[in-house]
Amino acid sequence: MEGAGKHYGILLALSLAIISGALPCCSSQTTRKFQFNIEWKKVTRLCTTKQLLTVNGEYPGPTIAVHEGDNVEIKVKNQIAQNTTLHW
Fold it and tell me: What is the 3-class SS of 47-63, one letter each residue?
């Protein structure tokens, strides 16, 4: 019976090693890169058209999806002539 317990211990350790390598939170750091172009665009909502600030031509802008521990690199190309503030 002692031999069977030893085999279960090895099997458990091997299973944990495989599972931890498959989980994104436990793997090596990843750098997520995003490119955002900020520009004015005419957008129609509820039969009303107006100029809105868009990110990559979208309003609302794209979702930034990352995992805890990831590095994030965001490059922004501002194509707006006047001063403005963006909130993330």
Answer: CEEEEEEEECCECCCCC
For residues 10, 13, 19, 24, the Cα torsion angle rounded to the nearest 10 degrees is: -150
* Of 87, 88, 84, nearest in space to 51 by CA: 84
| 52 strand-pairing partners | 41
- CA end-to-end distance (rounded Å), the chain: 60
Q: b/e for 21-58, b at 16 or more Cβ within 10 A?
A: eeeeeeeeeeeeeeebebeeeeeeeeeeeeeeebbeee
Confirm if 70 and 31 have CB atoms less than 8 A apart: yes
The pLDDT confidence band at residue 27, using thresholds 50, 70 and 90, is low
pTM of the model: 0.58
- Over residues 34-53, the mean pLDDT reads 91
**At residue 8, does pLDDT exceed 70?**
no
